[in-house]
Amino acid sequence: IEVNPAYTSVIGMLKYAPQYMISKDIAAAYVIARRGLGLKEQIPEGYMAILKELDADELEELKEYVRKTVKNKQLKKRQLKEIDKAIKLIQSLGSEPGKASRPLGGTSLGAGSESYNLWRVLKVAVVTPLSPEKVLRDISVLKRVIFSGQVGRPG
């Protein structure tokens, strides 16, 4: 059985690592195994609440926060590029009627690259404010985000 490994790390980190208190690598393997079984990944309701409320202005604020906070030039450049991609996706979803409702159904398998992009936007919106200068190692902080739909925003 062969499966597409695209975004398994992101999905595993955001969904399964905080739920089951496992490393993001094991969570990515879990996503791959689920794909092998033909199962689809739903974006949790807490994250869907974040996606529905997220707008380009909030991501612009996050961009400024990263500019001020991150000292490593390469990391800053990479994060700003990811935020720009997220802004473009959010704007495209808002500008095309009917398109937002389809990928916001929450599936990442079978819905194609649009829903993979939603996972990418979630990573930017949820992980970057929590850990702008380094890779987020303690994924347990995301557990409350999954269930509450609230994430710390830059002040």
Give an overview of the whole structure.
Pfam families: DUF2192. InterPro entries: DUF2192. With 155 residues, the protein is mainly alpha-helical. It has one domain (8-148). It is 63% helix and 0% strand. It has helices spanning 8-20, 24-36, 45-53, 56-69, 73-95, 113-130, 142-148. The longest helix has 23 residues, at 73-95. The chain is globular, with a radius of gyration of 15 Å. Mean pLDDT is 81; it is low at 96-105 and 107-111.
For the structure shown, list the relevant keywords.
single chain, mainly alpha, about 65% helix, globular
Brief write-up:
With about 160 residues, the protein is mainly α. It has seven helices and no strands. The longest helix has 23 residues.
Question: How much of the sequence is in beta strands?
Answer: under 5%
For the largest beta-sheet, the strand count, sense and barrel status come to: none
Shape, per Cα inertia axes: globular
Q: End-to-end span in angstroms? A: 47 Å
Total count of strands: 0
Work out the radius of gyration: 15 Å
Order of helices and strands: HHHHHHH
* Count of helix runs: 7
Percent helix range: 55-70%
The parts where pLDDT drops under 50 for at least 5 residues are 96-105, 107-111
Mean pLDDT: 81
- In total, the number of domains comes to 1
- Structural class comes to mainly alpha
InterPro entries: DUF2192
Pfam family, one: DUF2192
